[in-house]
Amino acid sequence: MKKIVVFGFLGVKLDARGGFNVQKRLGKWRPTVGLCSQPDLLVDRLELLHDPCDKQLAGRIIKDIAEASPATEVRCHELALADPWDFEEVYTRLRDFSLDYDFDIDHEDYFVHITTGTHVVQICWFLLTEAHYFPGRLIQTMPRRSSEEGEEESADVAGFVDVIDLDLSRYDQIAQRFRREQVDAISHLKAGITTRNAAFNIMIEQIERVSGRSRAPMLLTGPTGAGKSFLARRIFELKQARQKLKGSFVEVNCATLRGDSAMSALFGHVKGAFTGALNERAGLLRLADGGVLFLDEIGELGTDEQAMLLKAIEDKRFSPFGGDGEVGSDFQLIAGTNCDLREGIREGRFRADLYARINLWTFRLPALAERPEDIPPNLDYELARHARDYGVQARFNVEARRRYLAFACSPETLWPGNFRELTASVTRMATLATGGRITEADVAEEIERLHAAWNGARKVSGIVEAALGEEASGELDLFDRSQLETVLQTCQRSRNLSDAGRILFTHSRQRKKQPNDADRLRKYLLRFGLDWETAQGVKRGFSDKPSAPYP
Predict the structure, then answer these.
(1) Cα(522)–Cα(531) distance, rounded to whole angstroms?
(2) Whole-prediction pTM value?
């Protein structure tokens, strides 16, 4: 059995009842003595906190506890509070007390007595126990009342106790409400789209929990167009709805920042900092004070800006460009990138200390081709968004929708622009649809348009040449070249060999009793003298973005 240990303040009014007269005080209910007199809660040790000037009262209470409960050990702790109604002082002193105390949770159960002390003391007890500085439960004591209202029953000096368990999951109605709120929050992060991809759902649930509990930096990775900017704004809206933030959402693409303008845009500048600096500029970090700063493509930042950003994250202070003094800004950073920052560290383009600071919470957004089961609900979402933005409702007829989804969900359709490209595709069809009806002809025209765009990108890609070399790639048949190019592009957009295999062999794997997609892909690569590392890391001479004009 674990020992029962209780922390509590000496009550200068209720515990002092009866004064120096032993008979009078032993016949009255007093919270601290009553706590140690419970027949069903045997207190092994009482950690009694009191002001130094109340030492005499503490001595009387110790004697009375020894009379009522001889097995209870009482340890007194003098805690001088200049103002017991000052929240900051009380909280700090009690927190320091908890940090100095040697808890032994393997052999002792802890309770915090909240009946005595000022209301500020009681609130601080609650907060510190909820935050697990005191690893236990709250307990309160009360006198029993007689049948006549307001008349205390003097014979019952023990009263009774009530334990308050802060584990809200034990309370069904509260737990159900929390679950509903969590479901609503997750739905908000996904824009109400019923996502069917299990891995993506798990990631969103983790983001929801982190958003509610942490203000540490977050890193969103994934290919261009996967929805990093959209998700960052949703995280901000979720935190704002939960009263976690007071400031604004400030977004900047770091690829657009160059030279002195990067310093000025991020950190602001003082008047006269450079030619043309006629007025002071606050900078994006200060604009994000109390809110969220989303730095997309953070890997494009210069090393000087990275150093200043690290200081701003850690110290909440930084120097404007051209200034001598520091300014403050308390923002939460969400960073986005479609690059491997670890490779940037190896090449000296990205600071390892900054990466360590922003890599606490990292979430990879999968490419659209990795989530084919999510294309139908996203298609409906894009149609609804088009109707909302343009005031015109567009719908597929049955056969047109079937044909478009067959194309969109095909393993051969890689969607190099990801969700951004799907949005553009739906927008084009909805805009060109006659009478708000997307027909098979509209779908066929859009598929042809996409193929032309992707083929145009492939012509300048050089991905096969980069993998095999000019001579070997020139000996390939057109069929083998096209197939290998698709495989290499899939490898580059996948986390590992198994993920790439699942995308490439989506349909044929269903006919196998024991599918081994990774082994099939490995053997295919070996036909060309390639391994997984080479296939995933091959350097390309083109952009992921399609070369054809898009709206």
Answers:
(1) 7
(2) 0.65
Residue 71 gets the label, from left (phi > 0), alpha (psi -120 to 50) or beta, of: alpha
* Maximum pairwise Cα distance, the chain: 108
Q: Are strands 292-296 and 395-396 parallel, antiparallel or unpaired?
A: unpaired
* Each residue's pLDDT tens digit, 115-152: 999 999 999 999 999 888 999 999 999 887 654 444 44
CA separation for the pair 264, 49 (Å, rounded): 54
Query: Torsions phi, psi of 519, nearest 5?
Result: -65, -40
Pair of tokens at residue 268: 């602001």
Entry field: residues in the chain: 551
Burial of 337 (0-12, 13-18, 19+ CB in 10 A): buried
- Do residues 40 and 163 lie in contact, with contact meaning Cβ atoms separated by under 8 Å? no
In this predicted model, what pLDDT tens digit does every residue of 448-507 receive, in sequence order?
A: 999 888 876 555 457 888 888 877 877 777 778 878 888 888 888 787 888 888 888 876
Check if the beta carbon of residue 141 is closer than 8 Å to that of residue 161. Answer: yes
Write the burial class of residue 474 (CB in 10 Å: 0-12 exposed, 13-18 middle, 19+ buried). Answer: exposed
Residue 472, C-beta contacts closer than 8 angstroms, at least 6 positions apart: 528
Distances (CA, A) of 286 to 196, 235, 265, 322, 462: 39, 20, 10, 16, 44
